[in-house]
Write a structure and sequence with these properties.
This protein is α/β, with parallel strands linked by helices. It has 2 domains: 2-135, no CATH class; 148-454, TIM Barrel (Alpha-Beta Barrel), CATH 3.20.20.70. It is built from 13 helices and 21 strands. The longest helix has 17 residues, at 422-438. The chain is globular.
């Protein structure tokens, strides 16, 4: 016996496929539920037997109306959903809102489950949409879910920037770094498990590793809405043709100064001329370029306006990144001495330009400002105006560790999942992702983790 709840809210034409999924929803706490697929069946005459409009709380025996439907693809979806943990999103108090989304269903289906020890729900749905349906369910009480993935191809870097490493030693590859094919498999699993839409390739320095070429080609072939790259630009001239021919539309270049001598003191590697040449190559090829600059009071504060002017002249959006309390800067005098707040940045820029705050995507990391007739700049204000409450980012390190939050050194390792069959890997990965989402903070708190290890 199973209990139908709000079955009549489902669009009638969703029953055309004659399939029925039976789930149990167990409330673990006020905002945490466990969902299990009990069975997936096809009905010879579902509308006649248990048609739309079934009264709420009506119990009936579906055993004689349905036959088990266990083709291989359905079995995989059932395993994916087994013991799947979900969090309450936009729901009325004391209810769990599950909202399946599918382009082939003309209207949204909203089913509310009242709190209780155990509630069974029965509703029909397209088999091809089970994975998408389940993906929508990993969401926390703030409505945050993982949509953007940062993939660190290597922990190695050809720079040793002062705000990243304390001793000037260049970072080396991590132990047990994954190969390009393994990282691509990880991305595909994350797509299926949580609905990743965008990927940013990071490091370390991603252009430094031989994996970059294979990974770029592979990830560009995946069904993603956007693939982008963050690089220090030192190797851009060598990789320019590959990047342009891949179809990538945008890149971010980390650049903290336009002074060659100061460049050497901050980056402790590379040369400015090569980086600027690489930026020009990307612009000439039609890519959208953003520059990331970390203003530091004792090192490059005098270049805040000159860097902005350089970017405005070239149609580049400059992003000032407030110094972050990461790694050796956590609880250090060095952070206090060098930190430049958003207020201070705006005061410096305001002495030269008039600007006004402008719009940004809901989950953007930057506060954006428009200089009328000249261009736009942004400030990633980790300290002054944290973006944590709308963060959709997940980070995958080069050795297979998943990090849900920059302010939390906890991680989930998915390296052991790569060799497993998909139907075995996905349920385990989804449990990891629930834990990773739990790791997200409400504000930036700093962490001992070095950002170069986990992907910027």
């Amino acid at each position: 016996m199973f209990q139908a709840t709000d079955y009549g809210a489902m669009p009638e034409h969703a029953l055309d496929n004659k399939l029925l999924a039976i789930f149990s929803v167990k409330m673990m706490s006020d905002d945490l539920a466990e969902v299990r697929v009990i069975n997936i069946m096809k009905f010879p005459d579902i509308e006649r037997r248990v048609g739309p409009g079934t009264p709420r709380d009506k119990s009936y025996d579906v055993g004689d109306a349905a036959e088990p439907f266990y083709e291989d693809n359905v079995r995989a979806f059932q395993l994916v959903a087994d013991s799947f943990v979900v969090r309450k999103g936009r729901a009325t108090p004391g209810a769990l809102l599950i909202q399946p989304l599918d382009d082939r269903i003309g209207e949204k289906t909203e089913t509310h489950f009242r709190t209780g020890r155990l509630i069974h729900v029965i509703f029909g749905y397209y088999i091809g949409s089970f994975a998408r349906y389940l993906n929508r369910m990993i969401v926390d009480r703030l409505g945050r879910r993982f949509l953007n993935l940062r993939v660190s191809l290597t922990a190695a870097c050809n720079y040793a920037c002062t705000y990243c490493v304390p001793d000037g030693k260049k970072l080396m590859p991590a132990r047990n770094e994954m190969q390009a094919t393994e990282l691509l498999t990880a991305v595909q699993l994350l797509q299926q498990a949580v609905g990743i839409e965008q990927v940013r390739i990071t490091g370390g320095e991603p252009l430094l590793t031989p994996k970059f070429d294979e990974f770029l080609t592979g990830v560009m072939a995946l069904p993603l809405s956007d693939v982008s790259l963050t690089t220090n630009g030192q190797l851009l001239p060598r990789k320019a043709d590959l990047i342009v021919n891949s179809g990538m539309k945008r890149i971010n270049v980390s650049l903290d100064t336009l002074n060659p001598e100061r460049f050497k003191r901050i980056a402790r590697g590379g040369d400015l001329e090569t980086v600027l040449h690489g930026i020009d190559l990307m612009l000439d090829a039609g890519l959208k370029v953003k520059i990331n600059m970390v203003p530091m009071r004792t090192q490059n504060a005098g270049e805040i306006v000159p860097m902005l002017e350089y970017c405005l002249e070239r149609g580049i959006e400059l992003r000032f990144i407030e110094l972050m309390r990461m790694g050796h800067l956590l609880n250090s005098n060095g952070f206090v001495a060098d930190y430049v707040s958003m207020e201070s940045l705006l005061d410096m820029i305001g002495a030269v330009y008039q600007f006004e705050r402008t719009g940004a995507p809901h989950d953007s990391t930057a506060v954006r400002f428009d200089i009328h007739g000249k261009g736009v700049f942004g400030i990633i204000a980790n300290e002054s105006e944290p973006f944590c409450r709308s963060c959709t980012r997940l980070r995958l390190s080069s050795d297979g560790r998943l990090y849900g939050c920059l302010s939390n050194s906890r991680y989930q390792s998915m390296s052991d999942l790569i060799a497993l069959p998909v139907h075995e890997a996905l349920p385990r990965l989804q449990h990891m992702l629930v834990s990773a989402l739990d790791d997200k903070k409400l504000s930036f708190q700093g962490e001992t983790t070095v950002m170069k290890f986990i992907g910027g």
